Amino acid sequence: MRLILNFLLTLLRVALCMLALAQIPALAHATPSSQQRALARELYTKGQQLFREGNYREAQHSFEEAYRVAPTPIVLLSVAECQVRTEQYEAAAGTLEIYLREKPDAKDRAEVKTQIDTLRNKPAFLTVSSNIAGADIWVDGKDTGMSTPADLSLAPGVHNVSVSRDGYVRSEQSVRLAPAGRDTIRFTMMPEAQAPVTVAPTTVVPDAPVAEESGRHFGPGFWAATGVGIAAVAAGATLGVLALKQEKDFKDDPTTKSADQGERFALFADISYGVAGAAAVTAIVLYFTSGKSKGAEEAAPPPAQAWRVAPALGRDGAGVAASAAF
């Protein structure tokens, strides 16, 4: 069941990604109007004034609005600078990566890459304490040589921190640290004499098999497949509408850009419908295979006739095949 659910979630992610990717080119290549460019300049000038006043949060918001109205890669450098001033180092690194992607011929590419590495590797600070002072501190399986309470300087990322002391049960926690971030964790250590004793569970074997509830039912896998199918159909319909709009734009103004965009939308729409078909087949199979349990089958004689349903796949699409045995 877990493999089926993972498969269905993958299908849903594919459908959603197709919808998102199909719209990125249209946004990236849209040419702002003269009114939009004027508004962007106004917002950028306002952001510069706020930055000079030290109001970095509001300045960042103004720069982001300017970029949204008229996407200009150079504005992203101002956004990143505001994020650095407000200690949003991970976000700043991501903004600079977008800048390099939007401006592949940037002359300052080497400097920006160096800045990204610097931001991503800023050491983080972690305060470790415990109810029993003097506990040895271990990070990622290595003894730090320090004892609680203590302040540690660690690389950003996920770390496994544990504390130990003679006569007490070892305790551990996981923590995720952002670049130049600060966090605190506290351990509550228990004396070994008070540690709970784990008792193995007792297995009870019934005298006779008990027939479980029979009949098909709508299990979690069925509903998951149905949800994926609905999401994929919605994505396909949206992409289909966008493809028709691009076709109309092409008729009004036949350009290579309009033709390529229309073909992209149509292709992603077909992929979404394919995902919907696969999800539908999966839902049908899950429904017809959720029949009587093994105990019930052993308790009752085989029926005089039975139906078998299985998915059928071919070059023209997917469906369901049924057969009867008498």
Fold and architecture overview:
With 326 residues, the protein is of the alpha+beta class. Among the domains are: 31-120, Tetratricopeptide repeat domain (Serine Threonine Protein Phosphatase 5, Tetratricopeptide repeat), CATH 1.25.40; 124-178, no CATH class. Helices cover 53% and strands 19% of the residues. The strands form 3 sheets. The protein has a 4-stranded antiparallel sheet, with no helix packed on it. A 3-stranded mixed sheet has the order 4-1-7, with no helix packed on it. A hairpin with a 6-residue loop joins strand 5 and strand 6. Helix 1 packs parallel to helix 7 (220-252).
Could you write a compact summary of the structure shown?
The chain has 326 residues and is an alpha+beta fold.
Q: How are the SSEs ordered, and which strands pair?
A:
Layout: H1 2-29, H2 34-52, H3 56-69, H4 73-85, H5 89-102, H6 109-120, E1 124-130, E2 136-139, E3 142-147, E4 150-154, E5 157-164, E6 171-177, E7 182-187, H7 220-252, H8 256-288, H9 294-299, E8 306-314, E9 317-325
Parallel strand pairs: 1-7
Antiparallel strand pairs: 1-4, 2-3, 2-5, 5-6, 8-9
Helix pairs in contact: 1-7, 1-8, 2-3, 3-4, 4-5, 5-6, 7-8
Question: Which key terms come to mind for this protein?
Answer:
9 helices, alpha+beta, disordered C terminus, Serine Threonine Protein Phosphatase 5, Tetratricopeptide repeat
